[in-house]
Structure prediction request, 324 residues.
Amino acid sequence: MFDLTGKKALVTGASGGIGASIARALHAQGATVALSGTRVAPLEALAAELGERAVVVPGNLADAAATEQLAKDAEAALGQVDILVNNAGLTRDQLALRMKDDDWQSVIDVNLTAAFRLSRAVMRGMMKRRWGRIIGITSIVGVTGNPGQANYAASKAGMIGMSKSLAAEVASRGITVNCVAPGFITTAMTDALNGEQKDKLLTNIPAGRMGEPGEIAAGVVYLASEEAAYVTGQTLHVNGGMAMI
Amino acid sequence: MSDVAERVKKIVVDHLGVEEAKVTENASFIDDLGADSLDTVELVMAFEEEFGCEIPDDAAEKILTVKDAIDFIKANAAA
Prediction:
């Protein structure tokens, strides 16, 4: 099950905890992976760890031209892109009353607009080949909201709406578009929380623990697989029961 | 240059799965040949590939009939 042999995948934000885990999981199922991000050193390290079937394609998703170029670079490096995982994301947390336009815009640009640009760029080839998987890593807060994250939550909710629209447009061409919505996962982003914050958080998670990056990656592998061909426009929530939607 | 017309018609027949006789020059992709909006995008992509030319979005929007496609390609393609 979930064999991805011969498939070519582009993973953005592959230098982060969840992105690296997704790249590892797709690779383990047989896919060739293109690892993208702004920090080249961790990408090179991951590519070296994976060995064959892994290439590094750096790219700055804050820049429109660089994002278009990334899609071209990935297609050049892989031959084609069958699976796109829009995982790259950043936070600029601030109460809305104090949030600067720039904090708003930079989060929307990278988390949402770049995901759209990359999706648009790879859909062309997917349509021709009548096969494709576009998977967005959104967030539980895109559905529930979160104080201090108006920008981030908006970008993640936007990704869900965008994915549903794309899914409807290209379903007849063998392309599925879905999201995975992590809850609290142990990464550098959540390591920044102090002990008290973590304890409080855990009381709201029925599973009684934070999730692991591999538990997000497993959802991505499923959605990327042939077996998930009939699943499209969906958001798979992986959050230990923190929100049951 | 009638070659262009033949090649355009073949792409339309192959892509939309319609009878060749229906693909007249005045046939509208959507109204006469049953294409949906995504089909028209794919047809433009197929024309670009066949004739090695780029069809910008604003031009693509005006390609509504078989004749529109033939005329655009004759005017813009090298092949």
